Amino acid sequence: MPFDTGSTGFMLVATSLVMLMTPGLAFFYGGLVGRKNVLTIMTQSFVSLGWTTVIWFVCGYSLCFSGDGPIIGNLDLAFLRGVDLNTPFGDGQIPLFLFVSYQMMFAIITPALITGAFANRVRFTAYMVFLTAWLFFVYFPLVHMVWGGGLLAQWGCLDFAGGIVVHASAGMAALASVFFVGKRQAAERGPHSIPLVALGTGLLWFGWYGFNAGSELRVDSVTVTAFLNTDIAASFAAVAWLLIAWAQSKKPSFVGLLTGAVAGLATITPAAGFVTPASAALIGTIAGCACYAAVVIKNKLHWDDALDVWGVHGVGGVTGIIMLGVLGTTAVNPAGADGLVYGGSDFFFKQVVAVLGVSVYCFLFTYAMLALINLVTPVRVSKEEQELGLDLSLHGEVAYESAEVI
Question: Which three-class secondary structure string do you get for the chain?
Fold first, then answer.
């Protein structure tokens, strides 16, 4: 059966856009840290492009999307066994190879999101072990339970593009890692390159259209709605964050504007293909306010979440899932569900229970996993290594040869 060329072409572009988000994240995080730690955090993003791809091909895809187990799949599709050029996905509009590639890009970026929380404090060997274990024990089971026909899907929980699977899981894992690794012992002066942060934000925003609109996995009205909702939510959140921060500091902050946009993108992700554009505007406004408040609370409690992963992605993901439970409507997507305002109290309850349960699991498992890794190989770097900078002490490289190390 011939594949639909329009949907296949669009999904190739969407897959490329999601791939671009990981380098975008590297620039975003790289600009936010000091000059002597730029390469370290960028390496943590880029290495996932390679290592996660290897795991995905060997067994990751199979564990997510094969079998009918409630928690995890099986190894029937390991090494993509039995899949060929003409194997269709779903209703046959696109090749299965394309779906494998698209989902692989999600697997690549999700654990990379966590790295912003423990910036400047974790050894590379420990990070590689963490990346591997987190994929197997957190990400793969969540994908199977939500998108692979597992427990949460059967229960009726919805997540259009990754509020639970990507953002809530990564954000809560980030918070656990902050508590385990502890505070930085070498002070930094804040973002060393705001233009790099802006470049990263632009790449993330651009890639997010593939992240959200592509999650419809074909070209139809839901695809277009998800695309529009993505931009609306990001814009409303960016402006909300800017105005709140402006009122507090009496100056309009460019970093605040950029951070607010990312918060809006993360928050609309689970709801993008299930809500109206008006609802997306409301979700974006709430995202800007809620995520800003989370960062303020984090600062008051002195949690050293260096790049606000919990406040932006964790709180954003949880908020998005809950707001989907409030504002979702089958008038936008018949495959969705009606939220609380449309009489869907049961659906709202399921969304709240699912995201809270997953958040608790991700936090507890990540903390325990880091403790176990620390028994095998040290997780934290020394104070001396922090003061020298991880680029030089761990990787033997520097980003700026002629610049003062700050």
Answer: CCCCHHHHHHHHHHHHHHHHHHHHHHHHHHHHCCHHHHHHHHHHHHHHHHHHHHHHHHHHHHHHHCCCCCCCCCCCCHHHCCCCCCCEECCCCEEHHHHHHHHHHHHHHHHHHHCCCCCCCECHHHHHHHHHHHHHHHHHHHHHHHCCCCHHHHHCCCCCCCHHHHHHHHHHHHHHHHHHHCCCCCCCCCCCCHHHHHHHHHHHHHHHHHHHHHHHCCCCHHHHHHHHHHHHHHHHHHHHHHHHHHHHHCCCCHHHHHHHHHHHHHHHHHHCCCCCHHHHHHHHHHHHHHHHHHHHHHHHCCCCCCCCHHHHHHHHHHHHHHHHHHHCCCCCCCCCCCCHHHCCHHHHHHHHHHHHHHHHHHHHHHHHHHHHHHHHCCCECCHHHHHHCHHHHHHCCCCCCCCCCC
Best CA proximity match to 148, nearest among 29, 61, 209, 232 = 61
Note whether 387 and 190 are within 8 A (CB): no
Contact 45, 132 (CB under 8 A): no
Q: Is the pTM of this model over 0.90?
A: yes
When pLDDT is cut at 50, 70 and 90, the band that residue 406 belongs to is very low
pLDDT at 402: 60
pLDDT band at 120 (very low <50, low <70, confident <90, very high): very high
Instruction: Give the pLDDT confidence of 72-85 residue by residue, as tens digits.
Output: 999 999 999 999 99
For residue 366, give the nearest of 142, 159, 184, 211 by alpha carbon. Answer: 142
- Residue 285 neighbours by CB distance under 10 Å: 17
* Three-point CA angle 390, 391, 395, nearest 5°: 100
Find how far residue 214's CA is from the centre of its chain. Answer: 15
Residue-range domains of the chain with CATH: 5-395 (1.10.3430.10)
